[in-house]
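Handout, section 4.2: multi-component inputs.
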Amino acid sequence: MTEAAPSTVSSGRRRWPKRATLLVQYLLLQPLIIVLCLLVLRIPPPEPPSRYLVTDFNLRESGAEQVVTLPHFTASRHTMNDPPRYSGRFTWPGGEPRPAWSVMLPRFTNGVEVAINGVVILDSRRNPAANRPDRNTPEIAVIPASLLREGTNDLSIRLFVWGPIRGFLDRLYVGPDAELRPSYDMRMLLFVTLPVVFSAWQAILAVILGIMWVMRRHEPAYGVLAAAMAIGVGQAFFQTPLEASAFSRLNAILISAAPLESALVLAFALLFFGWKWPRYGWLIFAPGLVVAAAGLVGDATLSRDAFMLVGAPTVGLYLIALALVIGHAVWQRQDAVSVMLGCALTIVLTCWVLDLLSVTQLVPSRRIMFARLSYSAMLVAIGAALTWRFARALNQVDGFAASMVAQVREAEDKLKASFVREEERARAAALARERTRLMRDLHDGLGGQLVSIVALSERGNAGAGIGDAARAALKDLRLVIDSMDDIGGDLMLALGSWRERATAQLRPHDIALVWRAVDPQGLPVHPELRPWHVIQIVRLLDEAVTNAVKHAEARRITVSIETTIDVQADSQPLARGRITIEDDGKGFELDPADRWDPGGEAAAAAQHAARGLRNMRSRAARCGAELELTSDAGGTRVRLTLPHRFPDSDAAAG
Amino acid sequence: MSVLSDQGASQPVSILLVEDDAPTLWRLQDALTKAGFQVTSAATLADARASLAQAGPKVLLTDLQLPDGHGNELIRETRRRCPDTEIMVISILGDEESVISAITVGATGYLLKDAFPTDIAATVRELVAGHSPISASIARFIVRRTQSTAEPPPGPPLNTAKLTPREIDILWGIAKGFSYAEIAGHLGLSRQTVPGHIKNIYRKLEVHTRGEAVFEALQQGLIRL
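Output:
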C-alpha cells in the first residue's frame, strides 16, 4: 500500500506537478496538526486549588511499607486481594460555620476505596464509568460531618488494580466541597458526559447508516461504518464487570472492541475510497477475533494480556494503514473530504501515541487518555460527513430529475421538429412525383396538341388569334409545371423562368424587358413559400406585363428586384422583398368608374386594366403582399412588396 | 436575315430537322429556311439515320418522341459519328424530363416547339456560334441536383460531380434570371467567357464512358422517357 500507486498511470502527465504540490502540502499540514494537538493536550485538566492537595502517603503493599508522594504508580496485578493501601493525613480546621468537606480523586486506575478515620465513604468499583481505564473518571465523596475530627484526620485509600496496566493514583484533594466540586464537575463533563454524548450520537448514526446500507446494498461502506459505530456504542454502554457473573465472559469480549472497530474503520476507508477488496482482506479482523476468543475462553487475565499484546498494536497498525489509505486518497482524488479525513486521523493517531506513551510510562504523565474520545469524535464527524454527502446526492438526484425532464422535453421538441421536417420532405417528394407525372401527361397530350394548334394557326392568317390563345395556354402550362418545382423558398428561381417567358412574350411586340436586380441574392429566402404563392405572384407579374403590352403602348418595361429592410420600432428589422414593374406607356385611369363611357375605346382599355387591377389586388392579398399602383401619362408603376412571412393558407383572401 | 459571319455567306449552315408532327415540322422548317439555313427534314428515326449516313449536318434538331424510336438514340449516334455536329432537342414544354436526358446523351440546347420563328432562327444561330443556350428552369434543375439530398430526387439521373464551383455559381445566376453580363459582373468574369463555361457544363453533364453509358441505359430503362 504505497502512495505512488498504479493510479499515476491513468492520470495525465501534466497533472503530476499539481498533484505532487497538493500531496506535499498535505504532508506538511500533518506535523502542524500534531504540534497543535500536543499544545492543546498540554493544557492541564481542571484542578481544585492546590492548598487542598494531599500528596504524602504511607504505602503498604505486599507487607512492605514505604513513604510515597502522589502521583504514584504501582505494579500491575491480577488479584483484588490485598490491594496497595495508601495512608495519609489531612487537617480539618473545624470551627463555625462548618462547610461540607469532600475527598476528590481526579484520576486513578483502576478502582479506589476511600476511608476516613477508618470508615469507608467511597468505593469506585460500584461506578461502572470509573472502572474503565480509558475514561478519565474522577471521583468525589462528601465526608460525613460526624466522621471529621477537628485537627488531624486519617485518610486511607485502597487502590485496586486489575492488569494489564499498572495502577496509578493521582494527587488527591481534601477540602470544602464547594471548592472541589467545580473542577470535579468539569472533569465529569469532559471525560464522562462528552463520551456518552458522542456515543449516543454514534448510536443514532449507526442506525441511519445501517438503514442506508440496507436500502443500498451495493454500497457496503455504509454498512461497515454502521458496524464500527455499533461496536463503539456497545463498548461505551456495556458495563465492565468486576465480579464473576453469568455474562462476564460475554462481557469480556468487549475488550476486543477496539481492534475490531479499527479493522472496520479501515475496511470502511478501503471501500469508501474505491479500493478493490483484497483477497485476504478479511484477515484484518483476525486480531480482534483472537482477543474476543481469549475473552471467551480464558480468564480475565488472559483476555487483558491478549488485549495488550495483540489488540493495542493492532489498533496502532490499522491507524497507520488508515493514514496511508487516506494519504493515497488525497493523492488520487485531491478532494476536501480526503484531506479532512486525513487531518482527523492524524489527531486520533497523535492521541493514541500519547496514550501509549503514557500507559507505558515512557513520558511523565498524569495518565489522562484521549484516544477514545478523539476516535469517537472522528467517527461522529465521518458519519455527519456521510449524511451530508447523502443529502447532497439527493439534491443531485433532484437536479438530475429536473435536467432529465428538460432533456426529455428538448428531445420531444426535436422529435416534433424532425417529424415536421420529415412530413415537409415527404410532402415535397410527393409533390415532385406528382409534378413529374403531370409533366409527362401534359407533354404527351395537351402540350403536343397545343403546339399543333400553334403550328396550324400560323399556316393561314385567319388563325392568328387561335395561335395566340394556344401559345398563351402553353405558356400557362409551363408556368403551372414550373411553379410545382421545389425552389427551396427562393422566389428568384421562379422569377428567372418568368423572365425568360416574359422576354419571349415581349420580343414580337418589340418591347424591351430591362431587368434590375440590386444584388445577386435578389430577394429574401422564404422557407414557407408554396407553389400556390409562386403562381399568384408570377400571374400577378404576368398581368402587369400584359397590361403594359395591351393597353399602355409601352416600349420598355423595367423589372426591379430588391430587398428592403422594414424597421419597426418594437421589433427586429424585417427583410422584405420588393418587385417593381414600370413601363414607359401612356398610363391609364386607376378608377374608370368616375368617367364611365361604355362606347369609348379608352374606356374599354381602362375597363380591361381595371379588371386586371382587381385580379392583381386579389392575388397580392392572397399572398399577404402589398400592392402599390401608380399610373400617369409618363407610365405605370406596379410595386409589389412581399410579406415577411407568406401565409399558410389563402384563407386571407376573404 | 443572314447566317453568322464566321460561317461565311457562301456556305449555308446545314440542318437536319427530325420531327414527326407535320404542322410543327413545316413551321420549324419554314422559320429556319427563311433565316437562310439549309434544312433537311426527317419524320422518323430511320429517315434521320439515312440522312445522317449521307452527310453529317452542322446542326441536328430532333424531337424526342418519334414513331420508330426515341430521339435520344439519334442524339447518341450522331454524337459518336459526327462529333462536330451541334445537337438541339425540340421540346414542347422545355421541361427537365426531356431536356436533361437529351443533355446527358450529348445535346447542347433545346428549342421550344411554339417559339416564334425569329427566336427559332436566333437560337440556332447562337448555337452555331458556339453559344449553347440554357434556360433558367434547366439551370435550376442542374444546380438543385448539385445540392446533396438524402434520397435521389425524382426526374432523370444526372451526375453533377464534375462541375466546378464557378460553373455552379454561373448556373445559379442563370436560374435566378440574370443575364450573362450580370453573372459575369457578379462573379468577376469577363462577359465573353460565360458562354464557354456553359458549353463546358453541357460537356461535363454528358455521359461519356462505356460504364457510364451502361449505367445510364439502365437508368433510362428504369425511368420512363
